[in-house]
Amino acid sequence: MSKRKKEKTQPEVTAEEQAPAEEAAREPETSPEVQSEAEAASEEATASVEELTRKLEEAEAKAAEYLDGWQRAQAEFINFRKRMERENDKLYQAMRGDIITRFLPILDDLERALQNRPADENVKDWVEGIELVYRKLQSILTAEGVTRIEAEGKMFDPNFHEAISHEPSEEHESGQVIEVVQQGYMLGDRVIRPALVRVAQ
């Protein structure tokens, strides 16, 4: 028994049915009204972006200005604090020097008393007491940073010495200190009392 091949037939498309399909396949044409609205929206978006950019630039400029002002104020405050610390330190050192200077005449008196100590053995305890007080006062001044100015035999220096006389001397060079009349002292690197000296001519 033979099989018949069945032929597949496609339905015929008429011109009326093909026309709407072609119309649908075509791209829709944009009307002038729609195009105008799109351009307006695009321009508005561009203007908005430009406005935001301008505001951002202004904000950045303000932030930079404020930062610069803050940095300047901070630097000025640091300089002010350092200056106040220096001034306070100078004031403290000056007051400290003034107080120590008031004790120097006592040291002078004790030195003179020891230079003119009596030879009598009956006052030996008294002399030892004076020496003890003298050493204690010297120790306190040394602990505070007070040092004696070396003057005798040195060349006269107006920064450290004060001349009370200029005398001829065969044993000393001209300008050399002959004798220290009153000891001079320094507090650190500052002279709180110059040494009173006799100077050779």
Can you describe this structure?
With 201 residues, the chain is an alpha+beta fold. The chain has 2 domains: 45-144, Alpha-Beta Complex (Hemagglutinin Ectodomain, Chain B); 147-201, Head domain of nucleotide exchange factor GrpE (Nucleotide Exchange Factor Grpe, Chain A, domain 2, Roll), CATH 2.30.22.10. Helices cover 57% and strands 14% of the residues. It is built from 3 helices and 6 strands. A 3-stranded antiparallel β-sheet has the order 1-4-5. A 3-stranded mixed β-sheet has the order 2-6-3, with no helix packed on it. Helix 2 (32-115) packs antiparallel against helix 3. The longest helix has 84 residues, at 32-115. The protein is rod-shaped. The termini are far apart. Mean pLDDT is 84; it is low at 1-10.
Mean pLDDT equals 84
Strand arrangement within the widest β-sheet reads: 1-4-5
- Give the count of helical stretches: 3
Portion in helices: 55-70%
**CATH fold-level assignment of the largest domain:** Hemagglutinin Ectodomain, Chain B
Q: Could you state the oligomeric state of the chains shown?
A: single chain
How would you classify the helix and strand content by structural class?
alpha+beta
Question: How many strands, which pairing sense, and closed or not: the largest β-sheet?
Answer: 3 strands, antiparallel
Protein traits:
201 residues; alpha+beta; Hemagglutinin Ectodomain, Chain B; Nucleotide Exchange Factor Grpe, Chain A, domain 2; 2 domains; three-stranded antiparallel beta sheet; three-stranded mixed beta sheet; 3 helices; 57% helix; disordered N terminus
